[in-house]
Hints:
Helix content is 38%, strand content 16%. By secondary structure, the chain is of the alpha/beta class. The protein folds into 4 domains: 170 residues, Up-down Bundle (de novo design (two linked rop proteins)), CATH 1.20.1440; 118 residues, Fumarate Reductase Iron-sulfur Protein, Chain B, domain 2 (Orthogonal Bundle), CATH 1.10.1060.10; 184 residues, FAD/NAD(P)-binding domain; 147 residues, FAD/NAD(P)-binding domain. The site of flavin-adenine dinucleotide has 40 residues, from helix 13, strand 7, helix 14, helix 17 and helix 18.
Amino acid sequence: MKSIILGRWGKVLRYRKNGEDVTEGGGPEDFPSEKSFPDNVVAVMSGKGFLQFKENFDFVPMVAEYVKQIQTKYCCGKCITGIKGSKLILVTLDRIMRGEGQESDLVLLRRMAGVLNDAAKCSVCQSAGELLSDGLEHFREHFLNAVKHGVSDGPFRFVGSVSAPCMNTCPCHINIPGYVEMLQELRYGEALEIIRREMPLPGITGRICPAPCEKACSVANMGDVAIPIKTLKRVAADYEMIHHLKPPLEKVELTGDPIAVIGAGPAGLSAAYYLNRLGHPVTIFEDLPESGGMVAVGIPPYRQPRDVLEREIDILCDLGVTVKRGAKLGKHFGINDLFREGYRAVFLGLGSHKSTPLGIKGETDGIAGVFSGGIDFLRNINLGKEVSLGENVIIVGGGNTAIDCARTCLRMGAPKVSIVYRRTQSEMPAEPEEVEDAGEEGIEFHFLTQPIEILERDNKMTGLKCIRMELGEPDKSGRRRPVPVQGSEFVLEADTLIPAIGQTSALDFISPDDGIEITRHVTIKVDPSTMMTSRPGIFAAGDVVSGPLTVVHALAGGKRAARMIHEYVNTGKCNPSDSQWMEDLIAKIEENHGVLVTARTPSREGGKVSTMKLEPLERIDSFREVDSGLTQKGSFIEASRCLRCFHLILLAVDKAAS
Ligand SMILES: Cc1cc2nc3c(=O)[nH]c(=O)nc-3n(C[C@H](O)[C@H](O)[C@H](O)COP(=O)(O)OP(=O)(O)OC[C@H]3O[C@@H](n4cnc5c(N)ncnc54)[C@H](O)[C@@H]3O)c2cc1C
């Protein structure tokens, strides 16, 4: 017998495998099985139920630990039922575990658990009541045994982690319900303190994060509009900036080993920040004259104002991080030079800065009006270089870069701007809101269109020969593959072309002697649990590892690398901490079995305040920020809709097998 399941993962309340005690209906198929967990995990307890993978496991110490963690760490203290109820239960369980309890204590426990389950304000404490009630019913013999003889944790240690659907979907695992709650109380400093524990650039991600958290929000999953988690983060960051407040961050004595970070993009900035917090002197070496990576030289200021970025980088420098600009790895210095200079570890956050060519006729003929790529175009503009456009611009591509190029061209005064994309709007990788904004501003879209040749007269572009496409069978990405319609060629008139179909990393300077393995997709290979490359002491994260992705993924990778670098230089080893181990495990289980937690309280009525946006005609006159976010009142109303649906997930781990 392996699995005993009690609880609400599916509909089973108790299940045993070999004959005995099989509950009718349901079955373990719906449940995460022991295969979903590492071998040393013996039991799992969460707001969704209890799973046990080993015989002779006592329920009582685990539920006591669950109540203890809720009581001491996660209870918000806002309802008397939660704070007092969980305390009384804990005292009673302690007494029983010491062998000083009586059978009548079990009656008391059942009553208290029922009250906690029914009357606590949110599901954090409710879950403890529910688990205890179920346990008293289905594991009564364990409780009776504890009353008689007492019981200890035995050969197990308990590892707990608090999670919520939003937190778990956020690559940085920010305590979202925690900071949203601070915003309800207008405690912006405390909200930022919570955010910066896991992610150092709240002003930036509060604007341009694709916010996977909002898609997982329990309020949305109950059929209402998600809490605007992203914009609430921005409200806190903007408050600090507008009021010139000093961030609540203490300077740390930098007595650790010096670390070199290459690249001042989100990955590098995040690695530097967390290394600084851990006491390491950090120097960032950046090729460009600006810090911020693609946030500075890719994302245009009408989405991501530069003063916000500059302030967030200044905060980092004030804490003691040094940034050397105009310093290119592979040109001005090599990796081995860094170790010779005394750096104990190196972090590579090089991003993806090489445009992918269209591969069509005329592209490399030096025709006037043809740009080498969208990211080169945006970089030049963002670095203040002179860029001249024609009257009729075509951008090729369907991602964020294509949309940003098109909207930038409009703001530079181009009278006609179109986007050519080989699939349909629903397959566009760009954020739907960006596509909508671009349409409102007057950008034309040519869907199911593939360019095949650049046309020219006197070496000046005159048009783009294209072919119509139709959608065929799905490809590896799951999107339907575009197929050319024979004989459907046509010409779009244009004098300017910006290809924006993708980018890769520029890693030519890394030689086999450097010992850093490069994948066939021209990314750096790392161990995802430690972010260490194939060469010990060299770590990497961000777009250079994942390929072009998002700021929040780069920030998460940089943070993980920083924690592992600290471990590596101090111990010579790279062992993920319990909390990191839990993060990965929960993410994996949720990917396969759905969320481990769900809210039970219905969403509160009201709210749903929209952010304030400039009118389309006002927008295209300048690079002014389009979206000005939420007012304080709006943020209060929105934050008040949060269900605080986080739950504790507790594992019992076999000490001998760890
Ligand atoms: C146009 C555009 C729009 C985008 N919009 C969004 C968005 O809305 N939301 C979102 O989340 N993400 C967006 N992204 C993606 C996001 O910007 C990236 O995923 C993120 O910046 C990656 O961070 P990174 O630190 O890995 O790399 P980067 O930001 O690219 O930073 C890498 C840094 O390393 C430096 N560098 C490279 N090689 C060397 C070297 N040899 N020596 C020294 N320095 C070097 C580079 O100059 C750069 O500063 C967008 C990207 C683009 C191009």
